Amino acid sequence: MPHEPASAEKSITVLAYRVEFSVDKNYVKPGDNLKLTVKTYADGAPVSRRIKVMIEIGTFTGTLFEGTTDATGTWTHTWTVPYRVTCPEGTVYLPCNKTSMYAMLAESPYTSSPRVDVYFMHPVQMTLTTDKDSYAPGEPVVATAKLEYRREDGKWAPIGSGYTVVFTLDGQSGSSKTDANGVATYTFRAPTASGKYTVKATFAGAGLAAVAVGVEEVAAMAAVAARPALLASSMAAPIAVGAALLIASLLR
């Protein structure tokens, strides 16, 4: 049976989508607020689209959040970081991990943003003491630092053995590793001139760029009251305790 030729036409639109993802900080600990921002564009113009925020830890990929960008192509969320997070794909413990986070369209063409590295850290606190408060010139000064990390149950526990603590006093410096109780000690010689001096202990972290510093003053040939030794960790502005400066360290 013969058929005459036929044709049909339908117009389609091709859009180049772009997804942007950002966080307001890259180092966080449980309890911190992390602001997440997603922006979606089509051919360079903001567009409202359904999105997902994803997290990758090792071989695990999970969906943290789902939402829709507004008319300006923007979605924001402030996330209070937990110790562990439950995604539809499973539950993961966050500290101490370097993770990759990104956003993607929740529907075709499933365009993704570039990955952003976010480090989840354990809170760490350090105490620093000396065997006494005043010394004769040249007398041994025994400094003891103790490192603890905050567990998921809120209790502080020894960080464990093998972590390096650097001690300094008036140009002298040396290092010692923590024992099973998270304690490191180092012995200096008191300066030969009378006066007040500062002993510092520094923990540079383990795998993350973070520092904790504890300070206690030592007097050579002068009796002085000891500075407060217990320094609480913080990721906010440095905390001064007398002459003490604290920069938080959050590690395994």
What does this molecule look like?
This protein is an all-beta fold. It has 2 domains: 17-120, Macroglobulin (MG2) domain (Immunoglobulin-like, Sandwich); 123-250, Immunoglobulin-like (Sandwich), CATH 2.60.40. It has strands at residues 17-23, 27-28, 33-42, 45-46, 50-57, 60-68, 74-80, 84-87, 90-93, 97-105, 116-120, 123-130, 134-135, 140-150, 156-158, 164-169, 172-177, 183-189, 195-203, 212-220, 230-231, 239-241, 244-246, 249-250. The strands form 6 sheets. Strands 12, 14, 15, 18, 21 and 24 form a 6-stranded antiparallel beta sheet that branches. β16 (164-169) and β17 (172-177) form a beta hairpin. It is elongated and about 115 Å long. The termini are far apart. Residues 209-215 and 219-252 have low confidence and may be disordered.
Rg over C-alpha atoms, rounded to the nearest angstrom: 27 Å
Oligomeric description of these chains = single chain
End-to-end span in angstroms? 79 Å
Output mean pLDDT. Answer: 81
- Tell me the number of helical segments per DSSP (H or I, 4 or more residues long): 0
**CATH class annotation of the largest domain:** Mainly Beta
Q: Which ranges are low-confidence, i.e. pLDDT below 50, for 5 or more consecutive residues? A: 209-215, 219-252
Whole-number total of structural domains: 2
Number of strands: 24
CATH fold-level topology of the largest domain: Immunoglobulin-like
- The CATH architecture name of the largest domain reads Sandwich
